[in-house]
Design goal:
This protein is of the alpha/beta class. The protein has 25 helices and twelve strands. Strands 1, 2, 3, 4, 5, 6, 7, 10, 11 and 12 form a ten-stranded mixed β-sheet that branches. It has a two-stranded antiparallel sheet with strand order 8-9. Strand 2, helix 17 (301-311) and strand 3 (318-322) form a beta-alpha-beta unit. Helix 7 packs antiparallel against helix 8 (135-147). The longest helix is centred in the C-terminal third of the chain and has 26 residues, at 515-540.
């Protein structure tokens, strides 16, 4: 059923955007809050209260990630004087102000301008993080080291920073970095120095869950959400945790259903073998494996087969060798029409440069069982490196109309702070590791991948739109974290010809659908997402205090 249209489109847009972002980048959060607070007196009373509530929440969250900005600190303190935040947040804010308000005024815009030139120089960033002229500058340099995946330098910077008078303010953020490095002992060490607040509660919850303390994790997630209800994504995290652990083994979820896994490569010999090793060491039961050699000329078919059989450790692998590179869309279509693929209940496509978690396939199959309208499910994608940084998560329409398609950001925030570790319907997921419900796709008549987007670019996004267009759903499963090696976060800029190809394919995609149909699809996706969030909020509401429920209702328009 379609939700009743909201009268305040700005509030609706920013609310959806914030939910997609998880932690919204502080600069964007401040910009959204500024728009919400303009002409507030001219709004009808209910819309005005929703705008004010959402703006307050966005600004409070912005300060959690950007506590060194003097102007933002002053604005949040002023707002909290008129409408108190939670007791946990107020204690955190008072502790931050006690340390920072006596120092010189700092404006993070100035700091960011100074650090932009350092983003490709790890050594200069480390020097800035260790010896910069202000805590804000040192904190920002440390954050960029995380973004670019230099875990060793990030750890060095974090250890030095937490020994300073301002160290407790940054420690919760640094503790998240330690958890993204899979360093629980370092995470605990940094947390012991942290000024308590919503972020420290959140990272403590995730640390407890990783160590198997489910009840403690649930209590801490609840406390984090109550401490800052603007962290909407914690509603999803609570729901996922309440559902319990994923299936323990492939057979427990497969129940006799068949899976075919297909990957395709072009001139990536060693990287493809790494992907194959990762695949066969994951829990895929008796799934068949097919490797399509898409016209590679850097090695012979025999070389690839011999090395792949060794990498597969005795698992059978079927090979297809094409004389030319037909591109990703045609390669997927070719694989889809193979007899083994046509007989499978599920078909998974992998790029040749991914590293998979052990339980990816059983979690995907569980998700497709629990969301029966979903025809395809895809992962959270992170960059390679010693510290995880986000490369690609779920995407939705930002704008859609006549020959106009704009998407939400593929990586709203590079720092992986658990904000994308949940499941939700969305417009599109990344195609480097996705699983299709073959039977549902056939029943809906989902078209094949469009070869006009060869060799690649937007082909998987357009196909996801076609899934929605056919009446299916696309599901994001952030429990599955895939390392995608194509983009390390520092990929060289595309040439003019490269950008021409990207934008040319984008224009082709825009022209495939009427403006009216795009608007309808956008509304359908948004309705589905809002209904999903409402159901999640209804599930967790009984766990929350009356104050937290009221704040969430004010910010979300009464959802749940």
């Amino acid at each position: 059923m379609r939700n009743a249209p909201e009268r305040d489109l700005m509030t609706s847009l920013f609310r959806r955007q914030h939910l997609t972002n998880g932690y919204t980048d502080p600069a964007l959060a401040m910009q959204m809050a500024d728009h919400l607070l303009r002409d507030l007196q001219a709004q009808p009373p209910q819309e005005g209260m929703q705008r004010m509530a959402l703006a307050r929440g966005l600004l409070r969250q912005a300060l959690l990630l950007n506590p060194f900005d003097s102007a933002l600190r002053g604005v949040v303190a002023s707002l909290c004087a008129g409408q108190r935040a939670s007791e946990v947040y107020m204690r955190w804010l008072c502790a931050v102000r006690d340390v920072l308000d006596s120092g010189p005024a700092v404006y993070m815009g100035d700091v960011l301008q100074r650090t932009t030139a350092l983003e490709k120089d790890d050594e200069k960033l480390l020097h800035g993080a260790l010896y910069g002229d202000s805590p804000a500058y040192r904190f920002t340099c440390a954050g960029i080291l995380w973004e670019i995946g230099n875990g060793a330098f990030f750890e060095q910077a974090a250890r030095a920073f937490v020994q300073t008078p301002e160290g407790g303010i940054a420690a919760p953020f640094f503790a998240w970095g330690a958890l993204s490095m899979n360093r629980p002992e370092l995470c605990r060490e940094l947390l012991s120095l942290a000024v308590p607040g919503p972020v420290s509660l959140h990272v403590s919850a995730e640390l407890a869950l990783r160590e198997g303390h489910r009840e403690q994790g649930i209590a801490l997630l609840r406390d984090a959400l109550q401490a800052e209800p603007a962290l909407f994504f914690l509603v999803y995290r609570l729901v996922e945790t309440l559902r319990g652990a994923p299936p323990a083994g492939f057979e427990s979820v497969a129940r006799g259903r068949s899976v075919s896994v297909a990957l395709y490569t072009w001139n990536k010999f060693d990287v493809t073998l790494d992907t194959l090793r990762s695949l066969v060491h994951s829990d895929i039961g008796n799934a068949s494996i097919t490797l399509l050699n898409n016209g590679s000329d850097a090695f012979s078919p025999r070389q690839l087969e011999d090395a792949a059989r060794e990498a597969a450790c005795g698992r059978p692998v079927d090979f297809i060798h094409l004389p030319v590179n037909v591109g990703a869309p045609a390669a997927r279509n070719w694989l889809w029409q193979l007899p083994a693929m046509r007989q499978a209940d599920y078909v998974a496509y992998l790029d040749d440069d991914v590293l998979l978690p052990e339980g990816w396939l059983r979690m995907y199959m569980q998700s497709l069982d629990e969301y029966p309208q979903a025809a395809v499910v895809g992962p959270k994608v992170v960059n390679p490196g010693s510290i995880a940084s986000v490369q690609y998560v779920l995407r939705n329409f930002y704008k859609a109309g006549n020959k106009l398609i704009r998407f939400t950001n593929n990586a709203p925030l590079f720092w992986d702070m658990g904000q994308y570790d949940y499941r939700s319907p969305c417009l599109s997921v990344m195609g480097c590791c996705h699983l299709f419900n073959r039977r549902l796709c056939d029943r809906l008549g989902v078209p094949q991948f469009d070869v006009r987007f060869s060799p690649s670019q937007v082909d998987d996004i357009e196909h996801d739109i076609q899934v929605w267009n056919a009446g299916g759903r696309v599901l994001y499963d952030g429990r599955v974290c895939v390392v995608h090696r194509q983009d390390t976060g520092r990929k060289a800029p595309l040439s003019e010809a490269g950008w021409g190809h990207v934008w040319g394919n984008h224009m082709k995609m825009e022209a495939k659908f009427s403006g009216e149909r795009l608007k309808e699809l956008k509304q359908t996706v948004e309705d589905c997402g809002f209904s999903h969030f409402t159901a999640a909020l209804q599930t967790v509401a009984p766990l929350l205090s009356r104050e937290a429920r009221g704040e969430l209702a004010a910010m979300t328009g009464g959802a749940g």
